[in-house]
Structures are given as C-alpha cells and as structure tokens.
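User: Can you help me understand a structure? I only have the sequence.
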Amino acid sequence: MIDIFSFAVFLTTALFFILFYFAFNRSISYLFFSFFCMAYAVISFINSEQEYVLNIQSDATICLIADIANLFLIAFLLWEMLIPYRKWYLVLYFVISFILNPYLFQIAPITFLIIAATSIAIYGLYNKVKMAIWPVIGILGLVVHIYLASENLQMTSYNLDILLFIACIVISVSQKVKLQNEEKQKALNRSAVLENELLKKNIKPHFIFNSLTSLQELIEQSPKDASDFVEQLADEFRLVNKISTQTLISIEDELNLCRIHLRIMEHRKGAHFSLHTEGISGDEMIPPGIFHTLMENGITHGYGTKREGYFELKKTVSNNTITYTLFNDGEIQEHQENPVRKGTGLKYVEARLQESYTDNWTLSTQQVEGGWLVKIKIKTKQ
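Assistant: Let's start by predicting it. Here is the structure, written out as tokens:
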C-alpha cells in the first residue's frame, strides 16, 4: 500500500517540477529533479506488490533505475548549489558510481550517493546559497535511515525517507522561487522609481527649453512684453522648483501654476487663454505638474493659428472613483494626431500618477466636438 502512495507522491512531484521548469526561467535543475522523481515513481509502481528493501540487489532493473535516479539527484544538487565546473563533477560521479565503484570500492550505492550529496549541500551552505539548509536536512534524514538500517533499528521504509527528502527539496525550491519573485518585483519597483526620477529631472529642462525659446521670440517681437514675460517666467520657475520634488500638492497650487503658464503663453503667442474649473474645492491633493504639463502640451499642439484658447477642468466623484476631465478647444485638423502626444510630457504625467496611485488610475485622451478631452480616473480606497 505504501508503494502506491509513494508512486502518487513521486509522480505528482515530478509533474510539479516540470511545471516549475516552464514557469520559472526554464532552470535545468528542475528537470533533473523531475526525472529523479519519475524514476522513483517507476520503482514504486514496480514494487506495488512487494516491499522494496534497501540494498537488495535481486532485481537488476530496479537497481539500474535507482542508480539513474541518483545520478539525476546529484545533477540537481550540483546545479542548485551553483557548484563550479558542475558538468565535470557530474561526469566524475558517473564514472566512480557506475564504472569504478562496482569493481574497486564496492560501496553501497545509497551510501555513496549520500556522501556525494552531503558534500555538495554543505558546499552550498558554506557559500550561503539561498535555501541550501533544506537539502541538508533532507540528506540528514537519509543518513539517519542508513544508521538505523546498519543497527537493525530501521522502523520505516526507504521510500518514506525519500519522501522526507522530497518534501525538503520542494520547500527549498518553493522558497527560492518566492525570493526570486520578490527580488524581481523589487527590481521592477526600483526601475519604476528611477524612471520617475529621470522624468522629473527631464521635465524641468524640457519646460525651461520651451520657455527660453518663447522668450527669444518675444524679445525680437516686443521687448516691452518680454520684460513682463521674464517676470512671469521667474514666478513659474519658482513654483515649479517648489513643487517638483513633492509627491502630492494641493490642486490650488497646481491651478496657480497653470494660470501663470497661460499668461506666459499669452505673451508668446499674442493670444488670450482662459481656465475654468468645476467641482474643484481647492484642497484636493494631486501629483505636481500633471495639469500644467497637459495644458502646455495642449497649447503647443492645438493652437497653431488660433489666438483664443479655452481650458476647462472638471472634477466628479462616483463609485469610489475621482475623475478629472481637462478640455481644450484646440484646433482640429484632418488626419491630425492627438495633440496630447506621448512624448516627455505625457510620460511625466503617467509616471507621476503611477508613483502616487500605483495601478489605481487610468489616463485617456480623445477628440471631442470642438476640441480635445483628457480624462484621468483615480480609484480611491473604500
């Protein structure tokens, strides 16, 4: 009965490690352990009618399968413990175990296996390979089995000792995969933070470049207006510098920045821009510069010839979702691309939203009657 149970466990574990192989970086060590378990599943199946006792050599087929299984086990440990020159060690183990041992050493195969496996596991433990302690515990279980057998005190079957070893290996690999996934997620998070910081640093040069270009044009066209432009530009620079390092600012500060920018663009284009709000209380907290950046994009790409511009920012709350819609009546030309293009500006907005709200936000842009609409939805915690 125990062999049928062992067969089911070995086969399940083999399939489990095959799935591990395809799911996690196709690590060949998982295949080695899967083949090891498959071999012992075959042994358990063959012995389903009789108890399999260690060191009985009457069945040459079972012994051969066990030796091959042990070879896969050694391969698994070599790859898992990151042993250097592991291919050569595997060849050496094969030569000693299959060719030399039967004629020269005549050491019991399980004893020779445990000596080799213990050495590999201790090497991994010494070099602080993650989760190396579990294979060591599993191998110690096999050592206890050999001792009990040698003292005629054996109270369990060999298969149960193997099952203990398998349990230790499964724990080891599962914990290692968990750590790898955590490290991968940390790396992704660090990457996202670095990208956000890069965009924060890039948005300033992008903004300053556009502003200085405007100033140069205005100086040539109207030196008097250029003087007012410089004063307003200084106000904008001070406000941008103040808020750019913050994660969230009040929407009132954001709207002040937007209005200053509209006055600057009025000087540059000789135009008139207005900003209207609806549903805004003034104390909402938002990532800095998002509406300022969207309005800057809207003016740059939507007001080539128009000398009158209208922006409207609305806020609505419904079903634990805050929605901001920013409309502008920019020019719409046939075959025109969306003026809020995914350049540095829009990437900055997305990075800021992700930084503050993780994945609980969406941003969409669309052409509507009379202009363009940008919609930001933010899910709030229930």
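Now, to help you interpret it: The first strand starts at residue 249 and ends at 250. Confidence is low (pLDDT under 50) at residues 52-58, 335-341. Let me know which part you'd like to focus on.
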